[in-house]
Amino acid sequence: MSIDASAALWFLPFVVPLCLYTCYTDMARMKITNPTVIALFAVFAAIGLIALPVETYLWRYAHFAVVLVAGIALNAAGVMGAGDAKFAAAAAPFIHLGDLRLLMLLFAAVLLAAFVAHRTARATPLTRLAPDWASWHSGAKFPMGLALGGALALYLGMGAVYGA
């Protein structure tokens, strides 16, 4: 992996709780909240100064801008929700550009696993554990925050172990 292991270790304890909260709120309310996205971005802004060289830190804001513009376009086309687009943009600075191909594979695997797990749970009595969750009754819609948050947390965890 191209991400620096020490940078991943710096980010991990701050980012994982936000990822878990994103998974929860998207399943419970089909929403990724603005305060969560702002907190994720703030973590990068604060911890990135410590964890990354200054030039790398500043260039990572370009990741944010590119993913935000792409997310806005995808949201306008009806392909993804606004919260998903904002979360992806806030998560983008944490990703080392050299790991983009790995991240896409990781996201595809997490998305598939999350979709199967969610749809399986939705079709079983497990829904009684949280009967009011909006994602159980969302029809064809899927809580993408479950996959987005899971993929970011997994990426940083893998980076802490296998990073450069």
UniProtKB/TrEMBL annotation:
<feature type="transmembrane region" description="Helical">
    <location>
        <begin position="102"/>
        <end position="121"/>
    </location>
</feature>
<keyword id="KW-1133">Transmembrane helix</keyword>
<feature type="transmembrane region" description="Helical">
    <location>
        <begin position="141"/>
        <end position="162"/>
    </location>
</feature>
<feature type="transmembrane region" description="Helical">
    <location>
        <begin position="6"/>
        <end position="24"/>
    </location>
</feature>
<keyword id="KW-0472">Membrane</keyword>
<dbReference type="GO" id="GO:0004190">
    <property type="term" value="F:aspartic-type endopeptidase activity"/>
</dbReference>
<feature type="domain" description="Prepilin type IV endopeptidase peptidase">
    <location>
        <begin position="15"/>
        <end position="116"/>
    </location>
</feature>
<dbReference type="GO" id="GO:0016020">
    <property type="term" value="C:membrane"/>
</dbReference>
<dbReference type="Pfam" id="PF01478">
    <property type="entry name" value="Peptidase_A24"/>
</dbReference>
<protein>
    <submittedName>
        <fullName>Prepilin peptidase CpaA</fullName>
    </submittedName>
</protein>
<dbReference type="InterPro" id="IPR000045">
    <property type="entry name" value="Prepilin_IV_endopep_pep"/>
</dbReference>
<feature type="transmembrane region" description="Helical">
    <location>
        <begin position="60"/>
        <end position="82"/>
    </location>
</feature>
<feature type="transmembrane region" description="Helical">
    <location>
        <begin position="36"/>
        <end position="54"/>
    </location>
</feature>
<keyword id="KW-0812">Transmembrane</keyword>
